[in-house]
User: What shape does this take?
Amino acid sequence: MDVANEPNQFFPLLVVGWVGLALASTLTLALIKSPPLKRKLFRWGSFGTSALLLALAYQFAKSPAQFAFVLVGVVLLTWLNFNLVRICDTCSALVYPRYFVPPAFCAKCGAPLTKSPIQ
Assistant: This one.
């Protein structure tokens, strides 16, 4: 593991990067009305965010065990996003699960939902 001598010097950049990523993804997914494009951006955004988080964890981890802990968490959260979050084909809404049960119908328009955004 490559541990920086002063990891705190990267903290402001990290905060700005995460806030920028959160704003960009929220605005992009809110403004796009095409379900296939929204699925594609959701998929790539999830993989990109996961890769960024793993790169940062690799940089700041002090031991392989710390990195492994983050790796397991990131893989689990990415898998949960792909298997539980749905995108409505009718109104293009992102529909989030309740209690780890994937939604069957859109909360916004009531249309039946497809299996997964990674299809």
About this structure: The first helix runs from residue 11 to 31.
